[in-house]
Amino acid sequence: MKNIALGVSMLALLTSAASAADLPRRNVAPIFSAPIFTWTGFYLGAHAGYTWGKAQGRYSDGAAIAGSTSPGGFLGGLHAGYNWQTGALVLGVEGDVDYTRFKGSRALTYTATGLATGLTGKVAQDWQGSVRARVGYAIDNILLYGTGGLALTSVDTTLAGAGVSRTLTSSRMGWTLGAGAEFAFSHNWSTRVEYRYTDFGRKNATFNAVALVPVVGNVRLKEQAVTVGVSYKF
């Protein structure tokens, strides 16, 4: 009797195991984690915007002459650089070169009397460039940064009067400082908006035979610019 009961139990156990083996199996999909975005790498891009500023002129034809103008115009060019990210901190270096339509003019007056001199001072800039450091804080694919460094340009300063016009071209070196925000919309492409202030300092120039006498000029040039751009990270 005991042998019969044991056989029945074994048969039931084997039947249950066979039924379980026939049940469909659930395949668990593997869990993939999205790759973490990094700002590290070389990049190249283009930008465009508007620049405006102030040119403060101090002149002398034997008496003190003064005048200032507020030039402005289009700005656009290329930028390239490298970023290195550790944690949320992003350090980098960037260079840019721009074509500009930055220009303006203003009639000059004698400072002692406020009388017009019959002279007009003009400034114009065709290009500028910079080499800057960048320090930023990354929030995944958003980068908030500050930037500053060396700025270069070439400025045409013109003095016109009494039917005579003289233009002097001078290279200038100054400093630039600004801030921006950049958004990466893929692992290679990003867009940015940036503001910068640039001071190119003062430059002396002597304009011969304007208004029948030599005129010595000293012009200080300061600029501001807002640009938007796009970059490709390699």
Concise description?
It is built from one helix and nine strands, in the order H-E-E-E-E-E-E-E-E-E. It has 234 residues and is mainly beta.
Helical stretch tally: 1
Beta-strand share of residues: over 45%
How many domains would you count in the coordinates?
1
Q: What does the largest sheet look like? A: 9 strands, antiparallel
- CATH architecture descriptor name: Beta Barrel
Q: Work out the helicity level.
A: under 10%
Q: Separation of termini? A: 82 Å
Report the structural category: mainly beta
Query: How many beta-strand runs?
Result: 9
Global outline: elongated
Could you please say which CATH topology applies here?
Answer: Porin
Instruction: Please trace the helix and strand order, writing H or E for each element.
Output: HEEEEEEEEE
**Uncertain stretches:** 1-8, 10-14
Radius of gyration: 34 Å
Provide mean pLDDT, rounded: 86
Which short descriptors sum up this protein?
9% helix; single chain; mainly beta; 234 residues
